[in-house]
Amino acid sequence: MNLIRSPEYLIPTLNSQSTVALTAPLIIRDTVLIGFALSPEESRCVELALNEFIALCPLLYRRVTTPRAFHGLKRIWEFLDERGLLPEEKIDNQLNINHIEDTRLMAFLLDPESSREVDYGDYQVQEALTLADLAQRYLDHDYPYRITDICDKASWELAGEMLAHDAGLIFQLAERLPGLMSRDLRKLYRDIELPLMLVLDDMRRVGIGFAGLKCAELAMETERSLALLAQEITGGQSVNLTSHEDVYGFLVNQGVPLQLAPAYVRRKGIKKPLEQIAHAYPLVRRILAWWDTGRDLGFLRRWAGHTRIHPLWGQTRSATSRVYARFPAVQNISRELRKLFVPAPGNVSVKADYSQAQLRILAHLSADPELVRVYNDPNGDVHTETSDWLGLGDRSVAKEINFAICFGMGATALCKKINELKEGKGRSDFIDLDTAQSYIDGFYGRFPEVREFFDREWENIKKLPGQQRLVRSLIGRERRFPRRPTSEMERQFRVTWTQQIEADLMKTAMVRLDRIFRRRNMKARIVMMIHDALWVEAPHDEENEVRHLVERMMTTAAKLTVPLEVDIE
């Protein structure tokens, strides 16, 4: 392996019209190593002083105007930005997305199940998206290096050898993976996923406006309410409510009928078993509320005083291809805390969410005449109709039932949702599991073609060989189900039909919206998305134009047999 110590060697290489594969940089003190490859046989590693790397960094990873292959380019940007090596002023628009191949993104599209994370020490790693795993799977190549060995030996030469080897693998994967993608999947990769990578990175850098002072006040209030709730739960007894083992013992002593093996409690916790019986035990509901409030308190303590939050937005973290935020997971905080997300002075927030997107998708897929009729009727309301059909007299409960179908919930999860809703309204007429199941059966009684659609597709897929079992979205996104069919797989199968298409809708709208903002030289930017909702921050004088554009881009993101509608505030 030739370790090149001349930055000048890289310049003509990067300007080549042939594909160049680049690794992420390995930075140790004031020295940087980068692997690069011009062909599978011609791979090298270049050693740069840190100041040389900083000068070249935009050319390496941002000003991509010639064919380039990477493995996880957005993650490289995040890594560089976190270390201040790619400041805002060095980011320009000289990036031609058509010249980029991202092997990590392609591998995810070929197998969305690779989004699963495994524990690796104190970290979680998407093992199936590592170069070592992909080399074995697609190149029949055993990866010869272990980062722990390199660290233990502290070998600069070995590290350079590994990076050169990695660059060669990236080059080979960039040649191999496109040929494994269907025409539709390749188009999805080019037209949606690669441009979305830029949108998500921009969202991270721009961040979300945040009421940091209000957050600090709310943190103190939450601490007090949490202490009062703990006193109410324990009655002054010494119980560590953060320990599932302690809580389990406490509940058993209080007469709650739990029979779980100690190993199960240690390994999996007791949240799920408690949710199954919460409808019958007020004490259990209070403990679950304490845990939820504690999660909110952790968020409040971490971000008190901040004026903007910059989550990492991932497009390869969900098997149904939804976009997820981490550090912090802003999509998972309570609705009450979302009020802390505020625009900067002089700006406004435009919030737009699809109206019942997954149910509309279900109407399109199943062609259930009654469900299609409701959505094609300008005055139709599926939640009201479900409420009337089941004799509930409560639209909000009917709404939970309808969405339970989309999310593949069973009676247990639906029971919990409805009882939480009722408790929040100060009601005590809680339902049991049998009642929840009767609601699910009632939905299918009202819209029988929905059940027939799911049952028919499930029976069809079970007959196929493992690698042929897949759910394909309207624009060609695929999720495979190669393992032996189980009840959990059936639930995932049902959920995938709607969530996969919903993800396509959102991603298409985001890419189109960001593109039109830039073409019109607008200052508006997408700052957050929550599954079926987009938040845009814009100057006051752009508000009306933004509202119009957001609605148009979202309602025309796909053609269904029922109209897509958007609620804007």
Automatic annotation (TrEMBL):
Domain DNA-directed DNA polymerase family A palm positions: 334-542
Family annotation (Gene3D superfamilies): 3.30.70.370, 5' to 3' exonuclease, C-terminal subdomain, Ribonuclease H-like superfamily/Ribonuclease H
Transmembrane segment boundaries: none
Domain of life: Bacteria
Record-level Gene Ontology MF annotations: DNA binding; DNA-directed DNA polymerase activity; exonuclease activity
Record keywords: Exonuclease, Hydrolase, Nuclease, Plasmid
GO biological process: DNA-templated DNA replication; double-strand break repair
Pfam families per UniProt: DNA_pol_A
UniProt keyword annotation of Nuclease present: yes
InterPro entries attached to this UniProt entry: DNA-dir_DNA_pol_A_palm_dom, DNA/RNA_pol_sf, DNA_polymerase_A, RNaseH-like_sf, RNaseH_sf
Keyword Hydrolase assigned: yes
The family this protein is said to belong to: Belongs to the DNA polymerase type-A family.
Protein name: DNA polymerase I family protein with 3'-5'-exonuclease and polymerase domains
Originating species: Desulfomonile tiedjei (strain ATCC 49306 / DSM 6799 / DCB-1)
